[in-house]
Design a protein that fits this description.
heterodimer, A: 362 residues, mainly alpha, two-stranded antiparallel ribbon, two-stranded antiparallel sheet, B: 240 residues, alpha/beta
Chain lengths: 362, 240
């Protein structure tokens, strides 16, 4: 097996051995078959859930793995969302240019993360101030977009349109023998599924690599990490940019999916949501983040059907319950429970146990 | 013998407090050097200046002939310094093995990593605890783990800040043995320590700091016979 594939499991991720990968394949197979049997509405809705997971994975890297609590994910999401809208409206959809808009929007988010991250990390803003500055930037960006209702606020053909939101955005599309295939419905579902699987596996390799080891070292004890000769600022900035780009994927895909975006996507509830998904699932693990985010999105939407206010209260309550009873996250706690139930088996799974134990000991 | 570390007129001032005042200090290559002094003498500040944790108010620091006064900490580490901090600076939520791996990974080939971790764990007597979380180790074991991590990066100068703080006499003795073995392998070592038994066990050149200056230098015998040293330790004089 190539060396980098061995990094699919390691100390920094829960889940290894045949049982985990069989489970992974079963879930993947289920996800692949799902559109064949499910109603179009549910397929589109599940694609919508997938969209948000990239942003959550990015936050897991920044906060869970590297120890920097960031509210900036929502700003990167918003910038990429608006960026996709503006570029796609101006360039149109010929020659598959909407994919160019997607890539550009993600790069825009990464660029903002690079600039913001550079000034914060090299300016030695750390701890709680990192959260405060990222939150302020997100609100400032959201407030700026909120006051763009006037006709003068336009970029080319794209009107920003304030709280009313920017409409008329083109969905992703590809030219196909003189016709145009719109990436929506099942096609969008499969595209997102492939992107998600590739991202998830690539990030598993990243966090189990030497680079990932240093991230975790920075989270645990930044001074010690530096005293081993690591320039910790470079690592922090790199992961902040990767996390920002992942939020950018969510933002651009969200705008392509709904063909509409408003500043409300960056308001307080929107800022809090990624924090809640990641904390409740288990911020220090990619799998826990992925599963936790999907489940919470489903629960949130189900409750929202009855009352949006109750859904928000439920999310807040879940965060409190997590802090009180499972600081490492419920998916991690569930994995630990599974481990205990199967502990009688002789098969050794020491590393996963260690990861789970240290996460639950917090 | 050539000096590996050299400070010239090194000063550090915090507001009105002169923590380190005009310190000219040298360590020879391969030496095992102890730095002692009462609380507030400026030992820790000197360590932090050497490591680049604080910028000096004035003066220069040379390491292996190079002026490193304005380099960042990690750049000094990459040039061959390493430190075991006073409060165990380990990754408590990671296993002993992971702690050592993070220290070693840039300093050995990936294929050799596992073997090197085993070798280092054995060196600091943590083979049996290799899979344990570092935070679950005893205080003494945490100190040894950090020494192991500090040594993993193959430094030419190792700084040990109170390596025996909080240790039992047996653990202190064992720490002394570890330090001696490292020095025997030609590693230059500078130790800040309060435990006189330990310093006696080291039995090499000693520098006494007082009120931010170098107060006395010499062998253990010379220092114990030095009248001023016993006075400052008893707190009777501030003028030497």
């Amino acid at each position: 097996m190539p060396r980098f594939l061995k990094l699919l499991h390691g100390d920094q991720t829960i889940g290894r051995g045949p049982a985990f990968w069989v489970g992974f394949c079963v879930v993947l197979l289920g996800a692949l078959l799902y559109p064949l049997g499910a109603d179009d509405y549910y397929v589109g809705n599940t694609a919508y859930f997938f969209i948000w997971i990239f942003m959550a994975l990015g936050l897991s890297l920044i906060w869970g793995y590297t120890g920097m609590l960031s509210f900036g994910q929502t700003a990167f999401f918003g910038l990429a969302g608006y960026g996709y809208g503006v570029i796609s409206i101006n360039l149109g959809s010929a020659y598959g240019l909407t994919f160019f808009a997607l890539v550009s929007a993600v790069l825009l988010a990464a660029l903002l993360a690079l600039l913001l991250g550079y000034f914060m990390i090299y300016g030695r803003i750390g701890g709680v101030f990192f959260g405060i500055v990222t939150l302020s930037v997100t609100f400032a960006f959201s407030q700026f977009l909120a006051q763009t209702a006037g006709p003068q606020w336009r970029i080319g053909a794209a009107r920003l349109n304030g709280y009313n939101g920017m409409g008329g955005i083109l969905p992703l599309s590809l030219p196909w023998f003189g016709e145009e295939i719109y990436i929506e419905g099942s096609i969008l579902y499969y595209l997102l599924l492939v992107m998600l699987v590739v991202c998830y596996l690539a990030l598993r390799i990243l966090v189990n690599s030497r680079f990932g080891n240093v991230l975790v070292a920075i989270r645990e004890n930044p001074e010690r990490a530096e005293m081993l000769g690591y320039d910790i600022r470079k690592y922090q900035l790199a992961i902040f940019v990767i996390g920002g780009a992942l939020a950018g994927i969510s933002g651009a895909m969200y705008t392509s999916w709904g063909q509409f975006i408003t500043p409300a996507t960056m308001a307080l509830p929107a800022v809090a949501m990624p924090i809640i998904w990641v904390a409740v699932g288990g911020r220090k693990d990619l799998t826990a983040t992925l599963v936790g985010t999907f489940v919470l999105l489903y629960v949130f939407q189900t409750v929202t059907v009855y009352s949006q206010q109750y859904a928000l209260i439920l999310m807040g309550a879940l965060l409190l319950l997590t802090v009180l009873f499972a600081p490492s996250g419920y998916v991690v706690a569930f994995a630990e429970l599974l481990r205990r139930l199967t502990a009688a088996k002789p098969r050794d799974n020491a590393v996963s146990r260690r990861v789970i134990r240290r996460a639950t000991d917090d | 013998m050539a000096s590996i570390l050299e400070t010239r007129s090194l000063q550090k001032r915090f507001g009105g407090l002169q923590a380190v005042a005009n310190v000219d200090f040298e360590i020879d290559d391969g030496e095992l050097h102890c730095l002692i002094g009462p609380n507030g003498a400026g030992k820790s500040t000197l360590f932090k200046l050497i490591l680049g944790r604080y910028p000096p108010t004035a003066g220069t620091i040379r390491f292996r002939g190079e002026d490193i006064t304005h380099l960042r900490s990690y750049e000094r580490i990459r040039r061959g310094m390493s430190i075991k901090m006073q409060v165990p600076g380990i990754f408590k939520d990671l296993s002993v093995r992971q702690n050592l791996a993070i220290a070693l990974q840039e300093h050995c080939r990936p294929a050799r990593l596992a073997a090197e971790i085993d070798r280092l764990a054995e060196f600091v007597d943590l083979t049996e605890q290799a899979s344990q979380l570092a935070g679950n180790l005893s205080h003494g074991q945490q100190q040894w783990l950090e020494i192991g991590m500090a040594v993993a990066i193959k430094p030419s100068l190792l700084l040990l800040d109170e390596p025996t703080a909080g240790m039992s006499p047996e653990e202190t003795f064992k720490t002394g043995e570890i330090v001696h073995r490292l020095n025997a392998e030609r590693m230059t070592i500078l130790v800040v320590e309060h435990d006189m038994t330990f310093i006696r066990q080291m039995a090499r050149r000693i520098t006494v700091m007082h009120l931010g200056t170098i107060f006395a230098q010499g062998t253990m015998d010379e220092i114990t016979r030095h009248e001023g040293v016993s006075r400052i330790y008893l707190g009777e004089s501030h003028d030497g």
